[in-house]
């Protein structure tokens, strides 16, 4: 079964064809990110306008890249929520119209759940196609860390995601973006802070006495990242321009605070809930420090941790088409 997925929840316009829920035949992504950079955040009106301009081209290219024609599409899946209303509306209206014209079923997909499902996507012809669901058995614990969300889920099956914890203020990606803005190192902040942290290295970070708070919120699986963000702000205001002040070290110490909490809480949730699989998703799942820490902690606890391949961490339509197959 070939499902055409459509994703337009934020600044990415994406279309993809996924066969039988896992085999990605094509995944095309256009983004208006560059236009938002000078504002330091997404401008919803610009994002939705570009969605409208890109959606036809991106969808045609996805069908072409898959080597298929419109008649080979068996169903259409679209991100229904959450997201920016103007952006979502473009994808939903487009998908409904296409499904109506082609007389094919339309499946609504939750964007956050799709970020988790991205772990089950494999490239065309991959040997893992037959084994991927056995490699990552359910029930599982899911950690979604993106620009808009930081949530932990108990996942019984793909139709049953139960929220067990979430951020009480900023999402993890939002904190990366805001801290990057404070440090004036560009937007989006995640990839820049990730690179700076790698350059500083963990040994230098240990030796460095700069530490930012980690919100433990004991007894819950909730997160809080606004405290660490404010701590970075006060630190930068006080020390910026003084001898020994290093933006790279501040960025690395900030990242350490965020990834330590994310990794410790999600492994704790797995251990306490006796779940052997941890599925991570969302833009922050691309973070090399988080990947390393989770591999280490999950490995010690005998838990299988999985991250989507890099193109499927960021917003993409393959995760939408994939999840639709198992709903
Ligand atoms: O999932 P996504 O593409 O869009 C949303 O649904 O929000 O996530 C975007 C977020 C941004 O906040 C960005 O700074 C963050 O993911 N991000 C990263 C990295 N790459 C992207 N955060 C930390 N490390 C990264 N390497
Ligand atoms: Zn997303």
Explain the overall architecture.
The chain starts with a strand and ends with a helix. Helix 4 packs across helix 12, helix 7 packs across helix 10 and helix 10 runs parallel beside helix 11. The protein contains 12 helices and 11 strands. It has 327 residues and is of the alpha/beta class. The mean pLDDT is 96. The strands form 2 sheets. It has a 6-stranded mixed beta sheet with strand order 5-4-1-2-3-6, with helices on both faces. It has a 5-stranded mixed beta sheet with strand order 9-8-7-10-11. It has 2 domains: 135 residues, ATPase, nucleotide binding domain (Nucleotidyltransferase, domain 5); 164 residues, ATPase, nucleotide binding domain (Nucleotidyltransferase, domain 5), CATH 3.30.420.40. Strand 1 and strand 2 form a beta hairpin. The longest helix has 26 residues. The radius of gyration is 20 Å and the shape is globular. Helix content is 45%, strand content 20%.
Give the CATH architecture of the largest domain.
Answer: 2-Layer Sandwich
Number of domains: 2
Radius of gyration: 20 Å
Instruction: Assign a percent range to the helix content.
Output: 40-55%
> Largest sheet, if any?
6 strands, mixed
The count of strands amounts to 11
Bound molecules: 5'-O-[(R)-(carboxyoxy)(hydroxy)phosphoryl]adenosine, zinc ion
Tell me, what's the shape?
A: globular
H-E order = EEEHHEHEHEHEEEHHHHHEHEH
**What count of helical segments does DSSP give?**
12
What would you call the structural class? alpha/beta
As laid out across the biggest beta sheet, the strand order is 5-4-1-2-3-6
The CATH class of the largest domain turns out to be Alpha Beta
pLDDT < 50 stretches: none
């Amino acid at each position: 079964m070939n499902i055409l997925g459509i994703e337009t929840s934020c600044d990415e316009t994406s279309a993809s064809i996924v066969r039988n829920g896992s085999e990605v035949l094509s995944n095309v992504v256009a983004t208006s990110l560059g236009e938002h950079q000078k504002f330091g955040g997404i401008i919803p009106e610009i994002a939705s306008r570009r969605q409208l301009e890109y959606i036809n081209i991106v969808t045609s290219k996805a069908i072409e890249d898959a080597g298929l024609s419109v008649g080979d599409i068996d169903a259409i899946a679209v991100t229904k929520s959450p997201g920016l209303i103007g952006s979502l509306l473009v994808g939903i209206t487009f998908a409904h119209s296409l499904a109506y014209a082609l007389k094919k079923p339309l499946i609504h997909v939750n964007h956050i759940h799709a970020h988790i499902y991205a772990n089950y996507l494999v490239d065309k012809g991959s040997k893992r196609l037959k084994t991927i669901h056995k490699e990552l058995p359910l029930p599982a614990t899911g950690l979604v860390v993106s620009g808009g969300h930081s949530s932990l889920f108990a996942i019984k099956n793909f139709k049953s995601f139960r929220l067990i914890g979430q951020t009480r203020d900023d999402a993890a990606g939002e904190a990366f973006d805001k801290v990057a803005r404070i440090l004036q190192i560009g937007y989006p902040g995640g990839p820049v802070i990730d690179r700076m942290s790698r350059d500083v290295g963990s040994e230098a970070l240990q030796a460095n006495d700069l530490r930012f708070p980690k919100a433990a919120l004991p007894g819950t699986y909730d997160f809080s990242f606004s405290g660490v963000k404010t701590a970075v702000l006060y630190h930068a205001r006080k020390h910026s321009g003084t001898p020994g002040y290093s933006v790279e070290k501040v960025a690395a110490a900030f990242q350490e605070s965020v990834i330590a909490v994310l990794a410790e809480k999600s492994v704790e949730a797995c251990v306490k809930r006796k779940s052997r699989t941890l599925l991570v998703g969302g833009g922050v799942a691309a973070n090399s420090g988080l990947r390393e820490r989770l591999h280490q902690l999950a490995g010690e606890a005998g838990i299988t941790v999985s991250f989507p391949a890099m193109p499927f961490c960021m917003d993409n339509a393959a995760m939408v088409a994939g999840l639709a197959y198992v709903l």
